[in-house]
Specification:
Layout: H1 2-44, H2 47-67, H3 73-93, H4 98-102, H5 109-113
Helix pairs in contact: 1-2, 1-3, 2-3
Length: 115
């Protein structure tokens, strides 16, 4: 009887640890799904929806970078670069400054250059 309780408790502990360790992996796969969806939407001409999917993917990866900085940083960086490569021309085609989405510059930077 005692062995059963110990096995049960160890099983719970191990499953909690496995779940906690899987979180960045799950988030990455969600981000990749958003990215893939964006690619399909670009091909079908749904530019606004595609941009939204790319932004969702980027946000997921930013969370991984902040909360799990040691989880496959090269993989996260690579997908971020692919997403940005899609966002930049798509945003420009929609009349949006890419920096507003990617965050490399303040959103009002374009307003001064438009004068």
């Amino acid at each position: 009887m005692r062995g059963w309780r110990l096995s049960f408790i160890l099983g719970i502990i191990l499953s909690v640890q496995a779940r906690a360790g899987g979180l960045p992996n799950d988030e990455y796969h969600t981000a990749y799904s958003f990215f893939s969806e964006g690619l399909v939407l670009v091909r079908t001409g749904a530019k606004e929806k595609a941009l939204s999917s790319f932004v969702d993917a980027r946000r997921k990866l930013e969370v991984i970078s902040r909360q799990h900085a040691t989880w496959n940083p090269a993989v996260v960086k690579s997908l971020l670069q692919k997403i940005d490569a899609e966002i930049i021309p798509l945003a420009r085609a929609l009349g949006i400054t890419p920096a507003q989405i990617i965050g490399n510059a303040p959103p009002k930077a374009q307003a001064h250059s438009a004068r």
